[in-house]
Design goal:
Layout lengths: L16 E2 L2 E2 L7 H11 L5 E4 L6 H8 L3 E5 L3 H12 L7 E2 L4
Parallel strand pairs: 3-4, 4-5
Antiparallel strand pairs: 1-2
Helix pairs in contact: 1-2
Bound molecules: S-adenosylmethionine.
């Protein structure tokens, strides 16, 4: 393993879309996040995702047996992330929405 990791942009069913348009322009690939999380934490650890977007880090963290707290300031992204997390973790918490 080197310190340069390549992963293509998110496409296909993993990509959240509204009709033909991506919901979030910077949605990260779960495969890359899984690698980062496993390389830097142990099962049961807490992962902090301060700029959540669609909370892909939390999705990968739960799948890898970690806990996760996320924040997202934009209500529209927060709403999609909350729905997404409700489907993948027993008691997900995506925190913080703004104004
Ligand atoms: C690069 S995107 C994160 C994308 C995310 N990794 C994903 O896969 O969907 C950064 C996010 O941080 C959010 N953001 C910016 N400032 C913030 C703040 N002060 N608190 C919480 N979220 C913030 C933006 O609205 C944006 O959705």
């Amino acid at each position: 393993m080197t310190n340069v990791w390549h992963e293509p942009a998110v496409r296909g069913p993993e990509r959240f879309k509204e009709e033909t348009r991506a919901v979030h322009g910077n949605q990260k690939p779960l495969k890359l996040l899984d690698r980062i999380i496993r390389a830097s934490s142990d099962p049961g650890d807490v992962v902090w995702e301060p700029f959540g977007g669609l909370c892909s880090v939390a999705v990968a963290a739960f799948a890898a047996g970690r806990r996760c707290y996320s924040a997202e300031i934009a209500p529209a992204y927060h709403a999609v992330a909350s729905t997404r997390l409700a489907k993948c973790a027993p008691r997900p918490r995506a925190a913080v929405s703004a104004a």
